[in-house]
Amino acid sequence: xxxxxxxxxxxxxxxxxxxxxxxxxxxxxxxxxxxxxxxxxxxxxxxxxxxxxxxxxxxxxxxxxxxxxxxxxxxxxxxxxxxxxxxxxxxxxxxxxxxxxxxxxxxxxxxxxxxxxxxxxxxxxxxxxxxxxxxxxxxxxxxxxxxxxxxxxxxxxxxxxxxxxxxxxxxxxxxxxxxxxxxxxxxxxxxxxxxxxxxxxxxxxxxxxxxxxxxxxxxxxxxxxxxxxxxxxxxxxxxxxxxxxxxxxxxxxxxxxxxxxxxxxxxxxxxxxxxxxxxxxxxxxxxxxxxxxxxxxxxxxxxxxxxxxxxxxxxxxxxxxxxxxxxxxxxxxxxxxxxxxxxxxxxxxxxxxxxxxxxx
Length: 360
Fold this sequence. Notes:
By secondary structure, this protein is of the alpha/beta class. The chain has a domain at about 5-100 and about 190-225 and about 255-315. It is about 35% helix and about 15% strand. It contains 17 helices and ten strands. The chain has helices spanning about 45-50, 55-60, 80-90, 105-115, 130-135, 140-155, 170-180, 230-240, 245-250, 255-260, 275-280, 295-300, 305, 315-320, 320-330, 340-350, 355; strands spanning about 10, 60-65, 95-100, 120-125, 160-165, 185-190, 205-210, 215-220, 265, 270-275. It has an eight-stranded mixed beta sheet. Strand 7 and strand 8 form a beta hairpin.
């Protein structure tokens, strides 16, 4: 896939904590109780310095914070970690994805200063005052508005990601106008891939609950075809060609997105994985034992979590170690049931790409 010297991008999950409760996020059960398999792990500035040396940072083009489970704005050392990367590479691109609902205006102004013009913040805001909280449960609109404006007014480059559901699709144009008024440099209409399940079956709605388990919003696909993920429409073609989606996953060639980018993913536990998608299979809350997922076979081959920790091990040794080669070797296996890593086929199969279709 790649070697240490090829790494140009770090996708950093700085925390598993979040003040929100998005119903399609793995950190909670449909917006309710927390995922029982996670520990709210979080990286400190000292962890970051231990994992990423100045010489390694110098070779990077990009570091961005997003992740699978948490939001960077609730972590204690997010700002200091950005400062550390910027100190050792003034030319790299720095960014993060966030729901925007935490911290004060002084923190946001400082973030704009640290990131500067060589970077941006992607604000995940899925509606307006009366709808954003229907998916971004627990996010207070007045905080979103205040923080986005504070960041922009301090010179920060802002991009607005709008995830389209049936309950907010009538507001897309109004939100885009607001984004322009506030000074966002981009407004991205995201055609959600979240209605395509792990085994690539479509679903049409998702029932959200609150922290007490009481049903809240029923999340549904948009009605308008222009707002739907085009991958949903391509399934019939795939099934016609392969006989079933299962056969497609078994036979498809894999064009790894992160290999092309020279990107690695580092979890809030300090574990190095190729990407957020492979790491995202580690802690599915609906499994009594999360290790039933295929990805654990590859992690165990590499010495378990201890073997892929870049807090405990040198990053070069982990990148060049068994995990990456084990995953790459699986792609040549004849079927998922025989060991081809299914998540790689789902996310980087050459003919079906719900992720890319979000942005078209």
